[in-house]
Specification:
- The protein is an all-alpha fold.
- Helices cover about 75% and strands about 0% of the residues.
Amino acid sequence: MNIDSMISDAASFVWGPWLVALLFGTHLYLTYRTGWIQKHLFHAIRLSITKEPGAPGDVSAFGSLTTALAATIGTGNIYGVAGAVLLGGPGAVFWMWLTGVFGIATKYAEALLSVKYRITNRHGQMSGGPMYVLERALNARWAGVLFAVFTAIAAFGIGNMAQSNAIADMIVAKKLDISLNFPDASIKFWTGIILSVSTALVILGGIRSIAGFCQILVPFMALFYVLGCLIILGAGWEKIPATLSLIFTSAFTGQAAVGGFVGAGIAEAMRFGIARGLFSNESGLGSAPIVAAAAQTKDPVRQALVSSTGTFWDTVVVCALTGLVIVSSGTWNGPELTKATLCNQSFNQLGHFGSLILIGGLFTFVFSTIIGWGYYGEKALEYLFGIRAILPYRWLWIVMVFLGAVWKSENVWNLSDIMNGLMALPNIASLLLLSGVVASETRRYFTSTPPSS
């Protein structure tokens, strides 16, 4: 058995039915324990753009949210959706969307705990995340160490190499359309160089530089992509009812073989929809709470509400729109498709305009994710080895951005899936064990601070 097959088999094992059930079950359980926190979504959105004067922290609540969104809105929102449809059929879009709806509660809970148990390091900066929750709330430093190790490694997959690999693959797939005659290897090489240099210009300045950059980039890139998708869907509005019907029926009946699509059952639709949903919104992964802990806030529930909106924007809005564009195009059942070619064919419904939306969306999503996940990785390494490890990690991060652009695609995605699953396990354990704390803090906040205030 070669290394490619071993990595693929390991990814299939980690993302077997047991982990899918654990993650989705945690989403449902925390939805119940928080009293359906999703009903406070509009209150949470309002808080995300409201300042809290005099609150301790490194960056504003909005800066924390946009940094988290920078990390979560990435290739999973485009290539992840395409991969889910290719492997699980149109029904995977429904399960991905549903994971986002219920994942709001999980993102809320993990952010609440990370702010509640955060610390101030010797440089006066906030440090938090599931590793500190595991150590300070559960007296399980060994579990915190495991989480930090998985996070530091996973960062190179989900937040680094998978991202630069996706943009390099996309440019290679589009080179004929833009009259590019360079060899594929040269394209990937120069893509890696450009991404690496751009990354260095932002992350070497630390969290304030990262948050300042993300506050400008994230609203622009999200609005650009959402409006682009709406224009594409609007141009083919007559196909939307049939598209929605196909997505919902396939979610519960599976999808028979049609065209070049080999067919998928309900289990495949659920597995790939939920797996790619987590890859996209990271609810349950424990990553976003790391930057939530840096937010300027006096109340952990307040920042948890702000953080929970990230899952809404990422999956309930952006992933859903991508899924509608792909399924409505009718190209998902074509022969010998890859994620890159499926995305190209789907967005080419409006010719060069569609290509512009795809290229612009993917490039900004990729770059923002690399920036956001760089912070997650360095905070995990700070927990393990102290502040002295941060600068070497940042330089290693920059180098790995380049390597990701030239490495084999499927290995990058499969390794990302493996590390995601391993990273999620200690985080989910802390969420379930401390769900009572989450419930009591939520009751306290909404008793003393009604949403209308």
